[in-house]
UniProtKB/TrEMBL annotation:
Cofactor note: Binds a second Mg(2+) ion via substrate during catalysis.
Active site: residue positions: 204, 336
Catalytic activities: (2R)-2-phosphoglycerate = phosphoenolpyruvate + H2O
Classification via Pfam families: Enolase_C (PF00113), Enolase_N (PF03952)
Species the sequence originates in: Meridianimarinicoccus marinus
Name of the protein: Enolase
Keyword field contains Cytoplasm: yes
EC numbers: 4.2.1.11
Length: 427
């Protein structure tokens, strides 16, 4: 059973404070996890409780740590660590507010994940194995979505679109995905350098997007895939996170880079044109989180040929997944444990999506740390896809490298790729 729960302040990939939680069992075993932090957040996701004020940019977490070391520690002391649902219920009982603003979603997510880690330690299992056994899922090594250019809120809005990524479904192993990604990533850097446009990296390690239009990023990505010796659309495909809520202004969409205002229909037409012109297999938040009609329309027009992921739109919420499935909006969900605030609610969302034949992509945040929980969650739940950011910087690489280790462990399942994409490939 749980003996102590202790929170401490640690620092994330952007240098901001965040919450780490240690859950120590009566036999001395430890579970530890760290809360990540988003920059392009949905309005309905769990709140990171921060102190405000002038110090540390207002981002200190002493109030969230007080939640962990006070009410959370008191409520979890003596609890059965193997009962994840009961531990998460105890957190919800302490904070029934919809966005977890009382305890702080940063306090609850670090605690909930630390409990999961402690339970795995108690069972003497790697975390991915514990997750699979606990939730009755079949482990699979996921197909990564890897960022090549970072834009939007992760690059000072240098371009409007947020993530220009690749997926390598044609690779036969996770290791081969890493190798091909290295080639594409550095080919993209070479092309940027040749154009005199190389200017460092964005928040998640992708190249800084020194482009004159959003489409120039797509053209450059295609050129990079070719320069890497691949045929775009064959083994390597493109995945975009539009993060359209970030450029939604007064009910329309404003592409600042191109000085263009569009209504929902024009944005959908523009993205449809991109789907025709480029080998795009997946697209996230193509319209704003409040644009339900737009999401339904986008899914009606393109849902049979491309994966359509709700991130800001669905905020890892099982109820919103159910509503979207009923309305015909999206065919996949991004699963970010800190959007929900607990492991149980995240797994519930994951299962709701899978029950509808949807894709489910376990995802990091733009503010990350050395925590590798999501590599294990993605593998253990067998969801098939993992989004972590780019192919530089250790808070990203630690997740990819953990998948390589998991791949070497017996029973972790086969790699999801190895075949060209066809039909509703994500389901
Ligand atoms: P965030 O964005 O972590 O900065 O909120 C990531 C995403 O939109 O997928
Ligand atoms: Zn997103």
């Amino acid at each position: 059973s749980i003996e102590t729960v202790r929170g401490r302040r640690v620092w994330d990939s952007r240098g901001h404070p965040t919450v780490e939680v240690d859950v120590v069992l009566d036999n001395g075993l430890l579970g530890r996890a760290i809360a990540p932090a988003g920059a392009s957040r949905g309005t309905r996701e769990a709140i990171d409780l921060r102190d405000g004020g002038d110090r540390l940019g207002g981002k200190n977490v002493s109030r969230a740590l007080a939640s962990v070391n006070g009410p959370i520690a008191a409520a979890l002391r003596g609890c059965d660590v193997t009962d994840q649902a009961a531990a998460d219920q105890a957190l919800l009982a302490l904070d029934p507010s919809p966005l977890k603003e009382t305890l702080g979603g940063n306090a609850t997510v670090a605690t909930s994940l630390a409990v999961l880690h402690a339970a795995a330690a108690a069972a003497a299992k790697p975390l991915w194995r514990h997750v699979a056994d606990h939730y009755g899922t079949t482990p699979r090594i996921p197909l990564p979505e890897i960022q090549i250019f970072g834009g939007g809120a992760h690059a000072g809005r240098r371009v409007d679109i947020q993530d220009f990524m690749i997926m390598v479904p044609g690779a036969t192993s996770f290791d081969e995905v890493m190798e091909i990604t290295n080639e594409v990533y550095f080919a993209a850097g070479d092309i940027m350098a040749q154009k005199g446009k190389l200017a460092g990296v964005a928040d998640e390690g992708g190249w800084w997007p020194m482009f004159d239009s959003n489409e120039e990023a797509l053209e450059t990505l295609v050129a990079a895939i070719e320069k890497a010796g691949e045929t775009p659309g064959d083994r390597v495909v493109i995945s975009l996170d539009i993060a359209a809520s970030e450029f939604r202004k007064d009910g329309s969409y404003r592409l600042a880079l191109e000085d263009r205002d569009m209504d929902s229909g024009a944005l959908i037409d523009m993205l449809g044109g991109w789907l025709d012109a480029y080998p795009i297999a997946s697209i996230e938040d193509p319209v704003g989180e409040d644009d339900v009609n737009g999401m339904v329309e986008f899914t009606r027009r393109f849902g049979d040929r491309v994966q359509i992921i709700g991130d800001d739109y669905l905020v890892t919420n099982a109820k919103l997944v159910e509503e979207a499935a009923k309305a015909g909006a999206c065919n996949a969900v991004l699963v970010k444990v800190n959007q929900a605030g607990t492991v149980s609610e995240s797994v519930e969302t994951f299962k709701a999506a899978r029950a509808h034949g949807w894709g489910a992509i376990v995802s990091a945040r733009s503010g990350e740390t050395e925590d590798t929980s999501i590599s294990h969650l993605s593998t253990g739940l067998g969801g098939g896809q993992l989004k972590v950011g780019s192919f530089t910087r250790s808070e990203r690489m630690v997740k990819w490298n953990e998948c390589l280790r998991i791949q070497d462990e017996p029973g972790s399942g086969s790699f999801v790729g190895g075949a060209p994409l066809a039909g509703t490939w994500w389901g």
